[in-house]
Amino acid sequence: MRIVVLAGGIGGARFLRGLKRAVPDADITVIGNTGDDIHLFGLKVCPDLDTVMYTLGGGINEEQGWGRTDETFHLKEELAAYGVGPEWFGLGDRDFATHIVRTQMLGAGYPLSAVTEALCDRWKPGVRLIPMTDDRVETHVAVTLPGSGSAAGAGERKAIHFQEYWVRLRASVPAEAVVPVGAEQAKPAPGVLEAIAEADVILFPPSNPVVSVGTILAVPGIREAIADAGVPVVGLSPIVGDAPVRGMADKVLAAVGVESTAPAVAEHYGSGLLDGWLVDTVDAACVERVEAAGIRCRAVPLMMTDVDAAARMAREALALAAEVRAV
Ligand code: GDP
Ligand code: CA
Fold first, then answer.
1. DSSP H stretches of helix in 58-186
2. Burial of 72 (0-12, 13-18, 19+ CB in 10 A)
3. Per the annotation, where are the binding residues?
4. How far is ligand 2, taken at its centre, from the CA of residue 48, in Å?
5. CB burial class (10 A; 0-12, 13-18, 19+) of residue 158?
6. Ligand 2 centroid vs 283 CA: distance in angstroms?
7. N or C of the chain: less Cβ packing under 10 Å?
């Protein structure tokens, strides 16, 4: 079975670990979000690709869900001693090596997809991990920062990098708009459209619908290829009981005018894209609403408390895909 998964960071990676356990013989291609990518200290950092690579390759910091296990921060401390920041982005010594290798290879002219493949030679994630594009895309968030005191109440409206919004500000101000800068001009990376065309099933893990899956879908050609693939497309809700399980997805959903509920996210993707949608058992009452939108829906436990729980979710997603296919 050939499975294509559109993944962000933590939610995508943890689901993928379950999917691998559920169907060890499947041929899995992961299309990774690169809208979170950022240049720091002259290095190219790809947080979501690395979270998938480290999680599936056994190098992830389990409690945090991102970054390396057994990490130290000497390099960051030394940089801070020179007054070189940003101090708000947690890059550890082990993690730095990944970004140095990546930046060096990019500098030598390799595209990001080839670099990712080379990094995966070490980590052996057991899936084919492809960035959504080799072109530069950076998600920016429009915010109004509190005024500096002169004109009372007047704030400064500006666009900031997604990482600055998410990590430095912890989404503490409303996101007024979310823009994947560069996406319109980006081309899918080599292998992306081919994998979609050859897939037997396409899955949207419980990743952020706006800044993870939404960014991947913003690369021209990807959404169309999925809609035209003619195979079941099944998603799992990252929203359980009207709130994101982890993180601040509600803030970016508000920016695109979508309420933070499992059925609203399904409707946001729409029946033109999604054939099936899994909601958590606490949201069982919304199954009818999702089905009324033309998307087959089931309520099953959606908390990835451990790898077995994630594997059960993956089996449910594949069962729903089989149900959709049989219609
Ligand atoms: P990020 O790039 O690290 O933010 O990760 P993703 O975009 O892949 O996933 C983030 C989303 O995963 C958040 O919106 C969470 O609500 C969701 N999530 C995290 N853990 C779980 C879980 O156990 N169950 C479900 N249903 N969603 C989860
Ligand atoms: Ca991310």
1. 74-81, 93-107, 112-123, 162-163
2. exposed
3. 50
4. 5
5. exposed
6. 25
7. C
> Ligand 1, atom 2: nearest CA belongs to which residue?
9
Residue 23, Cβ density class (10 Å: 0-12 exposed, 13-18 middle, ≥19 buried): middle
Best residue among 10, 258, 277 to mutate for probing ligand 1's pocket (most ligand atoms within 8 Å of CB) is 10
Domains annotated on the chain, with CATH? 37-131 (1.10.8.240), 138-184 (no CATH), 185-326 (3.40.50.10680)
pTM: 0.97
Angle between helices 10-22 and 307-326 (to 10 degrees): 70
Dihedrals phi, psi of 69, to nearest 5 degrees: -75, 155
- The predicted-structure confidence for 182-194, as pLDDT tens digits, reads as follows 999 999 999 999 9
Amino acid 263: pLDDT:
98
Question: Which two three-digit tokens encode residue 136?
Answer: 């530069």
248 CA closest ligand 1 atom index: 14
